[in-house]
Amino acid sequence: MKKILVTGANGQLGKSLQALAPQYGQYEFLFADRSVLDIADQDAVNRYFAEHQPAACINCAAYTAVDKAEADEDNAFTQNFLAVMYLAEASLQHNTQLVHISTDYVFDGYSNRPYRETDETGPRTIYGSSKLKGEAAATDVNPKSIVVRTSTGIR
Question: Catalytic residue among 48, 63, 86, 127, which?
Fold first, then answer.
């Protein structure tokens, strides 16, 4: 049975995936919050991947306090960039499909139409900048990574 690791399991998206998981009994879901797997700890990430050998990892973990990130830049970049890089490295080493969840905050917010993945980025916040750097880490380290940009629709 293929294992799917879901990081950030106790966040909004992680909880939604937990609710949907029973519909996909052909997979074994490994729901990990920070108490189970601190993705900002490179050694912990490597140990977890080596022990559990997930076929896929859906990274729902993130520093999501958009306004607070302006004064907490180090933590925003640790969670949204470094931790993603560690997941990308481990996923590459263990042949794990990495799906990284990002945000429309990587754009400048001035478009009068929905953004396309090919549109030029230009984050105006620390949060957006940290998420954009995380996207780059995911795809630069492991070119097979998939980045999904979401939006709350509220800006």
Answer: 127
